[in-house]
Amino acid sequence: MPEHLEVRLPDDVRLHVDASGPADAEVTAILLHGWTLDGRSWHRQLDDVRERFGDRVRVVTYDARGHGRSSCMALRTATLAQLGDDLAAVVDEVAPTGPVVLVGHSMGGMTVMEYAHRHPGHFAARVAGLVFVSTTAEGHTHTVYGLSPRIARLIRLAETTGAGVLARCGSWRPPHALLRALRPSIRWMLFGDRCDPADIRLVTSAVAHASLRSIGGFRASIGAQHRLDTLTELAHLPAAALVGDRDRLTPPPCAESIAGALPTTELTVCPGAGHMLMMERPDEVNGALAAVLRQALDRPAAERPLSGAGDGPVAGVGTPG
Asked: Is Lyase among this UniProt entry's keywords (predicted)?
């Protein structure tokens, strides 16, 4: 059974954290969920890591601020910059020593990039591997929702306008009745050719637990982020990038540009899959994660990151940049 933890941030936001495995494991894997989702997104990965690696790997998931079982936050902190600071704080709190492998889906992958950008010394001292799942380093550059560019621009305008309204709705949560009505749209947007009914129920439940402030507030930051230059500084790390060829939010050019910036990246394009690869193609995601974990575990002990040394205590937590 996972251990339930709470990380309290300097601005009094409380993050819900689940951890499995010994605190002194050889490597800690931290899995970061996407926008409007929560840590439950990774349920098909948690058991697989435990079966493959046993006590050698500690697995951590957490709900980002304003999502899942974590508390809501001030609107000004609904930024990727803040999420990067939050990740640095989580690393210090739940994995204070030893190497860390970071696994990010969608907004979670962008959070990893922001951590690397804002805390380069801290990142270099701790991180031993990266897995990017259905994410981008180029904001909404490649996002056309699988439609013509003209229609995509209209959808983006409506989406960003609606996001601004939602961002001002505070800690309210989406009504369950509305989400049930929107389930076909959620299925179209997030999944590819096949969708297990249990997965769409889990995704709908996650959205129901996200505050309207987080649903609307993070949209501007997500659309504007550009971190390819940051990735080029991480070329020494073992890495993997996965994408579905039916992904309407982060289509294959997003993963291809990540692989171009990180030459060591193993790029996997999953035919017929959409945005929720950890659910739609768990075998591919599990295999890529296992390969990066093995490389982190196989590094000579003298070469492994050991502690949070680098740029000292995490700076800027609670202050968006």
From this structure: no
pLDDT at 111: 98
- Work out the widest C-alpha separation in the chain, in whole angstroms: 55
Enter the pTM of the model: 0.88
Provide the β-strand partners of residue 15: 7
Shortest CA distance to 291 belongs to which of 244, 236, 240? 240
* Residue 184 CB-density burial (10 A; 0-12 exposed, 13-18 middle, 19+ buried): exposed
pLDDT digits 0-9 by tens, 165-196 = 455 555 656 767 667 777 888 898 899 999 99
**Residue with structure tokens 């971190």?**
227
CATH number of 3-303: 3.40.50.1820
Give residue for tokens 């990893």. Answer: 112
Percent helix / strand / coil, the chain, rounded to 5: 45, 15, 35
* Residues of the chain falling short of pLDDT 50: 165, 308-310, 312-313, 315-321
Residue 42 vs residues 37, 94, 128, 137: alpha-carbon distances, Å: 10, 18, 20, 21
Amino acid letter, residue 67: H
What is the pLDDT at residue 156? 57
297's enclosing H/E stretch is: helix 282-298
**DSSP character at residue 266:** E
- Sequence spans of domains, the chain: 3-303
CB 296 within 8 A of CB 99: yes
* Phi-psi sector, 79: left (phi>0), alpha (psi -120 to 50), beta: beta
Task: Render pLDDT for 299-308 as a digit per residue (tens, 0 to 9).
Answer: 876 555 655 4
